[in-house]
Amino acid sequence: MYEPYPVPDLARDHKKFRYSSLWNFAKQDLKLLFFFLLIGGLVGYGMGYLASCLLAAFAFFLFLQLRSLYLVNEWISNRPYDVPPNLNGIWGALLFNVYRSQRQERVVQADMVGLIDRAQSSLVALAEAVVLTDELNQIEWANPAAEKLLGIQYLDRGRNLLSILRQPRFIEYFNDIDKSPDGIKIKSSINDEHYVQIKLTPFGSDSHLLVAYDVTRMQNLEQMRKDFVDNISHELRTPLTVLSGYVETFIDQEDINPRWKRAFEQMQSQTRRMNALVNDLLLLSRLENDKQIAKNQIIDMPSLMNQLFDDAQAYNVDYGHTLNLNIDSHYDLIGSDMEIASAFSNLITNAIKYTPRGGIISIGWYDDQDHGYFMVEDNGIGIDPKHLPRLTERFYRVDSARSRQSGGTGLGLAIVKHVLMQHGAHLEVDSIENKGSTFKAVFPKQHLYCVDHAD
């Protein structure tokens, strides 16, 4: 094995040293002491000064030990990376351990430096922006892409990140990362026509890793899709209205042929379904584009729950379910009554549609002081757990045939998700196949209004 510099004799015998006990090295010092005492004793016995010679021999041995100690200290203090002194005994063992530890440390340091260089080179080559901040939110390091996407330059190191990225939405996100676990999308501070997705990850003691990438193309495609759906939905409303009017006119004719009447009834059913789909698409488009009405209305929850229950009773006529209403909260909701009513109604009608005849459906509103809960529980067909993560995707159906038969549009839960997002809430779903489902809308405390303390 190649050595960068000469190694002491003791250090070369790795195997012997590694598996020898400290006593083996101490015996070298004891043998040396015994040798000096023996020589001193013989000389002193011959000269008649036995005690003095023994004392002199011990003093000489002590001098050698102190000299070794001096050499060890001088090497560790002044020349730790030079070749260590070639000593025997316990001091040699000590030197070898220090020497070996230093070599291992240098190897580890070299590996770490190489790894850091490779990691830094990789980060520099990334098209995504990477920024590191310290406990004071000051920029420690940023790659070149950070300048292109976020306007963070090399000279900005040491500056507060929030003094550069001053968009209110980013500051809000920075102060409450958990509120947006997937990050946020903002306009680039360099180019207003570009959009950047930003994700913050905390590490260490209040430090952060910021990763950002350009999502302009995805944003444009998404906007094109939304505009297309919005425009098509608007364009379909007029012909659907005309078709519905003519179909109703023909159905109302008393002398119509029964065969034609059946055909017109099917046409009426399908036009109603298409009209419901168009209305849902328009509502979803409005929610996604943030074209919402004010969210600061105080919604009278007992009144709303009773209205929803009455509507559910009317819808339930053809299903024959047992409906229960439970209100166990003194809180009202703060938000849009129209959107909240639409979301809750979707959850209730879904439970009615997907529960076999004669089922039991419970509708409730309650709180635990920190959150408000709207709940719909049924003992219907249930949902396979593999479908739960995708339930709120638009047009996603667990059973397409059953959905078409029930007249569903596949947009109900997508609307529910977006309405809840607009109100800072989220949807929780628990379901067991063939046993039933529980859909729970969870609202944060800041969207609750305590009726007991109303002025």
Automatic annotation (TrEMBL):
Enzyme class: transferase
Sorted UniProt keywords: ATP-binding, Cell membrane, Kinase, Membrane, Nucleotide-binding, Phosphate transport, Phosphoprotein, Transferase, Transmembrane, Transmembrane helix, Transport, Two-component regulatory system
GO CC terms of this entry: plasma membrane
Enzyme Commission no: 2.7.13.3
This protein's record includes keyword Kinase: yes
Subcellular location(s) of the protein: Cell membrane
Pfam family of the protein (one): PAS_8
Main location: membrane
Biological process per Gene Ontology, one example term: cellular response to phosphate starvation
Domain annotation Histidine kinase: ranges: 231-447
Keyword Transmembrane helix appears in the UniProt entry: yes
Biological function: Member of the two-component regulatory system PhoR/PhoB involved in the phosphate regulon genes expression. PhoR may function as a membrane-associated protein kinase that phosphorylates PhoB in response to environmental signals.
Protein name from the UniProt record: Phosphate regulon sensor protein PhoR
